[in-house]
Protein 1
Amino acid sequence: MTNILIIDDEENLRKLLARVIELEGYAVFQASSCKEGFKTLHKEHIHVVISDVKLPDGNGVDLTLKIKQEFPGIEIIVLTAYGTIEDGVRAIKNGAFDYLTKGEHQERIIPLLSKASEKSVLQQKVFALESRLQKKFGFDNILGDSRRVKECVILAKKVAVTDTNVLLLGETGTGKEVFAQAIHHESARRTKSFVALNCSAFPKDLLESELFGHAEGAYTGATRSKKGYVDEAHEGTLFLDEIGEMNIDLQAKLLRVLETGEYYRVGESKPHKVDVRIIAATNRNLEKESDLGNFRRDLFYRLSVFTISLPSLRDRKEDIAILANFFINQFSLKTNKKDLRINPDFHKSLYQHPWNGNIRELKNVIERSVILADQELSASLLPGDFNLEDDSSVTDLAAVEKRHIRKILIHTGGNKTQAAKLLGIGLTTLYQKIKDYEL
């Protein structure tokens, strides 16, 4: 039911108006002052306020602005016994739905109330949805009490409200896409699309088509024209994961988007305009890649205007328990195992593990353990080689990566597609690493 609040110090008129509105099926609340009205607003879920201009402790026109600032989803109809053009204009500027002179309101109030309530109900549904999205994708979704993570969140919040491009650095599985989503949902672009593209998931020619789209007949199999990810992200945010894997020729075309806002679809000679914010992510050292000629230095400078380096899980071990408990609750609900006990040796083993796969590896390990558990989570449920070797003593990064990839391949029974997904890298990248490491 739609709830209406009438704020008027003339009791007889207020009660009469309330009775008329109640007969139309609305729930009506009454207040005789600004102070009493705000008490009701904080207590009840109000959709529309009908307020007199002259009140004992304030002015209805000024009250409109205060209500809209605190309750933007509420619509306000202002009533006055002596209407002036100046008050009417100011009321509308302050956010009033409409401004009526008492006497004419008797015929207009119900139709107007219907329109105002429809708008308010829709707006409040939108605000509720945005709030749920904010909890799911915003900064509240980034878990951790460690100093390193808090510093990253502070930086991300500062850049989120700007339109600056962002470069997220960090190992695979450190949560770069989670940060990208949070930045988008805290930005002015949050009502538009967040589009994510993994640059390592496609070969060069196909990646260009996915990124920029193509014309009909642009290549064999292109039976119709297609929009690209850039166009899908128009006025929103494009997240380019593993951008270090992008071919250098395609990098030049991306640079054009950043410099001019223009791009060409494959097979077309006409440029398209786009307004998009780029958030890029990589686990590579792009500056080093630039020195080697693998990454355009001008593109690197464009992308790295604001850089955030995310810590590995082994560098924020105090967050392991927080993250583990979150995933335990998540997967316990999914598997209907809500009363699982947690043996202290389980958390101890988690803490001692090097987590070369970072948060993604932790999530996968917890999911597997919850599935295997009957009544208790214990260290015995962890992967067989979980504590057999102390990877934290290994200082050769290549050796660490080789050992971790071997573990994941064993875990997936040699399924390379699943292994690539768990590692958070493209299938072609995995095949290359298997070849390089002779796995």
Note: The chain has three domains: 3-135, 139-309, 313-437.
Protein 2
Amino acid sequence: MPDVSPIQLIIVMIIALVVLGPKRLPEMGKSLGKGIREFKSSVSGDDHPDLPRALPGVAAEAGHGSTPAERAGVEA
């Protein structure tokens, strides 16, 4: 794998700043980071730790609907 020097990284960042602009560059970095995190979690088979897990059968026993619309009380 080729070695990347700090000068090369600076040149790439300057080009990205010129092409994307100062407003869209943070958005692109955020979406790139989110994509990398999702890719890593899908490859490793881990679930999302920040999402709450529902116990199987708890929603049905409590009388709540199984879809978000049913849980919110919205009639279809």
Note: Residues 1-48 form one domain.
Protein 3
Amino acid sequence: MSKTEILEELPKLTPEERNEIRLKLAELEGGWLDVDDPLTDEQKGLLEARLEDIEQHPESSIPWDEAKRRLDARFGK
């Protein structure tokens, strides 16, 4: 399959399938996709620590729908 054919097929994929491709590309690139990534190493470390905490303590997190509802209620929509 050519690059052109791949690019033509991407819009036809489900969001889950596109995310799977993003993850594979990140894996192939060694992590972050953006070469000119605006995040500092400290910020990346903080994100990694928070993701690890969520994985270790899933009961302390809330679903995105609930978080969005709370943010909308607090800051307006």
Note: The mean pLDDT is 85.
